[in-house]
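Let us work through a complete example step by step.
Step 1: write down the sequence.
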Amino acid sequence: MAKSEHISQILARLPQQPGVYQYFDDGERLLYVGKAKNLKKRVSSYFTKQNHNGKTRLLVSKITDIKWLIAPSESDALLLENSLIKEHRPIYNIQLKDDKTYPFIVVKKERFPRIFPTRKLIKDGSEYFGPFPSVKTMHTVLELCRKLYPIRTCSLALTEENIEKGKFRVCLEYHIGNCLGPCVGKQDEDDYKKSIAAIRHLLRGNLGEVVRELEKKMQEASEAFRFEEAEQYKLKLASVRKYQAKNTIVHPGIDDVEVYTVVQDSRCAYVNFLRILKGTITKGHTSEVRRKLGEEPKEILEAAIVQMRDKFGSDSPQVYTPFAIDLPLEGVSCHVPQRGDKLRLIEMSERNARFFMRDRQKQLEQTQPEAATQRLLETAKEDLRLSELPVHIECFDNSNIQGTNPASACVVFKNGKPAKSDYRKFNIRTVDGPDDFASMTEVVHRRYSRLLKENEPLPQLIVIDGGKGQLSHALEALESIGLRGKIAIIGIAKRLEEIYYPGDQLPLYLDKRSSTLKLIQHLRNEAHRFSLEHHRKRRSKAALRSELDEIKGVGPKTRHELLAHFKTVKAIGEASIDDLTKAVNLKVARAIHTHFEAKK
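Step 2: predict the structure and record it as tokens.
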């Protein structure tokens, strides 16, 4: 495959998500690492813009492969970019290659803890939050913390003994309201700790606790007629709601950890691996694993972890996984995160695995369409618990408005694609009024009794647009012609996309992102479109016939001549007798004119 064609296919598959991209040359050497708010737009710009400088043109000329990692936000992508550049030192990266580190906010472990920015992480029991992608962002967060909760900024040793001896005096910060004076005993330690606890919630992005506490205090102040105090709490609430907490990739307290997650389709599993050292991600990789028959995700992950640790030379003592596993490695503990930063790592790893899986599927569609179709059908067979591949699927839908001109349609998909030449329309013959159930019975009976009579191939799956009612009546039709149990049949209810099976009261809910659900939705939407189109044509034809056929002297030939001349019934109704005589004789023209005048 030519380089340009390979790159074009990758660009077509790129997600429109924030993340980090990596460029490789033909020797699989990493050339460049970059971050993007939208990976598809940013990476595509390298190959579409013409005004690049010399260095960028040289870089683009050497690119033979592109890989990427998605991230929760642009800020996270920037931090991940920094980690990868420090780890791999790509030859085309200049910025972020030095050992400069991003700033953190530290909650110092001391009596009346201080909160301040730092670039050094010291293991003294203090708590660090960050890293922040910019100093400006960090100062914005600090400013909000201090605005909501006045805390000290001094470095005095506020021991109980020093305060009791009166060694300190209040400073300017106290007088302007930025500090409540713990140095002179004007604020006790318990009250100060409550402010620190609220600030911790804010720094972690857990604003719910902060909001509830502020709302409670505002309500209490208002009920006690302390309206100025209530107004201050109201302003603080507004500041919190305006503030958008910055989710960092990794909490700095998470060190020397490996994260593994797995997603799978009908043929393969995809295992994502992340390595975290000193609060930053240093490696990210997704491997494709061929599934064995009946192999569970737990077994896949256990085997993959052992292989990937050996491949990457990893020896972290702690492993995070989305579910409990039995890992036969001495000195390694497994943990299933339930909340906080650790759980966010699991979620990020799963997103990368899922995007890798979709990328592989899109790549297969580009290079091997037949294999992609086979995979789609195998996935549908597995998801819908079918006994054979649904190569031939048919879907039915009814259309009527207040019982008028009832019509139905059957659409046919073969190998996952519409076979429009096999679509069929039905005019309901045996049902009076708006009875969808009886209409479904009629069309299903007519469709398959005819296929049996003409010895045509039957589908492997029938999809009914509707819930349990429509499904049960379609099943009655199949039973009446001896096909019950010989063709798989399901119903799909529109409201919650529920899949119903004959005789099963509980519906099946497929993953909203699954290829099987998308295939069924495509069938249902195509059947609805085709049925509605047929119904509209019948209604329009019936309305046209009834309007002109009421007029004495207007038969099919005259109606055709009128429509050929005036185009619409409305234009005929608005025409004068002189205009009408251009298409018909005077007697008919007067009859038409009199008819429409009487209706005005």
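Step 3: interpret the result. Confidence is low (pLDDT under 50) at residues 95-99, 244-249.
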